[in-house]
Amino acid sequence: MIREFRPSESARLFELLKENFPEEEALYGSRPGAWNRVVRRIYRWDVRVLVGLMRALGRPIFRFFTVEMDGRIVATTIVSFTPRAGYISMVMVDKPFRGRGYARALMERAREAAERAHRRYVALDVLADNAPAIALYRSLGYEDLREVGLFSRPLAPVVPVDATPVLPLPPGLRPYRSSDREALVAIASRAIPATVAEVLPLNRRALDSSYSLDRILSSESGSWVLEQDGAPVAWSSVTVSDAMEAAGLSSPIVGESADPAQVDALLRTGVEWCARRGAARIVCQTPLEHRRSVAALERAGFSIAHRLRTLYRSAAHA
Q1: Which of 45, 223, 230, 312 might form a disulfide with 176, Cβ 3.0–4.6 angstroms?
Q2: Does residue 136 form part of some domain?
Q3: pLDDT in tens, 220-253
Q4: Residue 287, C-beta contacts closer than 8 angstroms, at least 6 positions apart
Q5: Buried (b) or exposed (e) across 10-23, using 16+ Cβ within 10 A?
Q6: Is there a single domain that holds both residue 67 and residue 204?
Q7: Count of helix runs (H) and strand runs (E) in the chain
Q8: Which domain range does residue 30 map to?
Q9: What is the distance between the alpha carbons of residues 310 and 297, in angstroms, rounded to a whole number?
């Protein structure tokens, strides 16, 4: 009944996404044609060989489980692997097939995959007002970890769209360099509560863009830092993709000593960069305990479109 997803099912997957996550889909604006091309790239033979090799070496990247009925997928979930947790997403069941235990079975399969991958926890995000889903997760032993804001702001169109603009950076700003990573990780880690850090520690490589990943996702990324006294004190990164109308803004890192006016300039740089590439809006997912980041987003014109809860439990069998 439960099996791995097949790339030929990308159109059906898109249907399930629109049905099960209407709020998020309205916000991100997935484009079906580009979406299908991205799925095909993810499941291209060389990428599949890499994914299989990483799994064999005990370093799995993700598992994508589905339930099939009469030759058609009716339920799905993905578990991706962070350093300490299996992160579950896209838990979906087609309406006519709800109430049959498929979501529960997929959640258990995802937990087993995390346990086999030697992860200590499983975690997931859920809309704060999705009472049925939260009730299911609670019955499976999930507890609250944090609250997250899904922030959004519209973008004014820039005509004509300039795909390769050279933007003059305000004073104190420069492009991100990999040598900035350790200082920025230290700043970001100070804003993470101990309980969250135990389950979802900051991925030290998350600040670095990946050319290979951008090619697979048909995306382009830009990252900048605010520098004071020769050291980075704030960071912002944005991504635009052919697969979505909305651009993505990573949760900004804002140090204690960062000048708010310069932080505002840092975020404006990313906003203009996305507008010049034709994005309709920018979406940013930020934990609400990151007060300086939230304040910077609000000053930049972002507001909360939805509230999420991050839930977690042990990956070990109860």
Answers
A1: 223
A2: no
A3: 889 999 999 999 999 999 999 888 899 999 999 9
A4: 146, 147, 148, 149, 192, 196, 251, 310
A5: bebbbebbeebbee
A6: no
A7: 11, 13
A8: 2-119
A9: 20
